[in-house]
Amino acid sequence: MATPSKPNRPAVPALFQVALAPVQAFFRLEASSGILLALCAVAALAWANSPWGGTYAAVFDAPLHVEFAGHGGEFTFRELINDGLMTLFFFLVGMEIKRELSSGELRTLSRALLPLIAALGGMVVPAVLYLVFTHGTPAQGGWAIPMATDIAFAIGCLTLVKARVGHGLVVFLTALAIFDDIGGILVIAVFYGTGIHGDWLAVSAGLGAVLWALNHFYVRNGLAYALVGAALWYAMHHAGIHATLSGVVLGLAIPA
C-alpha cells in the first residue's frame, strides 16, 4: 500500500522572496524615498520628545572608535551621518546636476543661471527680513538661520509629487536647493566658523584642480576619483569648511 506523499513545503529562499516582495514593490515606487524620509522624521520627532528622549541624544552622540592600519579616530554617530552619509547624498545630487548641465534641462547658460539667481534671492531676502525685525536685539546674530534649506527634505518632498509635475521643474528645484545649501554652508564657514585654515584650504583647491584635470582628460578610472575625493573630504574637513561640499565637487567632476 502506497504511503501518502507529504505536501511540498516552500523552500527557505522562496519564503524569503514572499516576505521581501512587498518591500521590493515599495522601493520600486518613485516616491518611496520621500515616504521613507517622512516616516523616519516622524519617528525621530516622536522618539526625541518622548519620555525616552534622553536615549535619542545618547545614541547619536555616543563615541565610535575606528582603527585601520594602526591609525584610528573617534567620532559620533551624528558626525557619521552629517559628515559621512550626507557627503554621499551630495555626491549623488552633484552627479544629477552634472548630467542636467551636460545634456539636460540646465545645458544652456540662461537655464543654469536661473536656479542660482533664485537661490541667491532665497538666501538674501529671508536674511534681510530677519534683520529688519531683529535689528538692535541680541537675536540679530542669527540672521543666517532663515537662509538654510534642508536639501534632503526638499528633494524628498519633490519625489512625492514628481509624477505630477514636469521634469524641468524638478530639476530647477533640485538645483535651487543645492545652490542654496552650498551658499548656507559657505555663510556658516565664513561668518560662524571657528576659523578657516588656509593651508588645508590650499590643499583642497589643489585636489579640486586634480579632479578637474581628471575630468578634462576624460579619465574613466573610478578608483582615481574615489581616492582624490576621499582626500578632498579630509582636506575640507581640516580646512574648516563643511566636508559635504567635497561630495558636490566630486559629483560634478565625474565624466558625464
Notes on the structure:
The protein is mainly alpha-helical and 256 residues long. Among the domains are: 76-98 and 195-256, no CATH class; 108-193, no CATH class. Helix content is 69%, strand content 5%. It contains ten helices and two strands. A two-stranded antiparallel ribbon has the order 1-2. Helix 4 packs across helix 7 (167-192) and helix 4 (77-103) packs parallel to helix 10. The model has no long low-confidence stretch (mean pLDDT 83).
Number of helices: 10
Low-confidence region ranges: none
The helix fraction, in percent, is: 55-70%
What is the distance, rounded to the nearest whole angstrom, between the alpha carbons of the first and last residues?
71 Å
What does the largest sheet look like? 2 strands, antiparallel
Mind telling me the C-alpha Rg?
A: 23 Å
Structural class: mainly alpha
Quote the average pLDDT. Answer: 83
Number of strands: 2
Arrangement of strands in the largest sheet: 1-2
Shape: globular
The share of residues in extended strands comes to under 5%
Order of helices and strands: HHHEEHHHHHHH
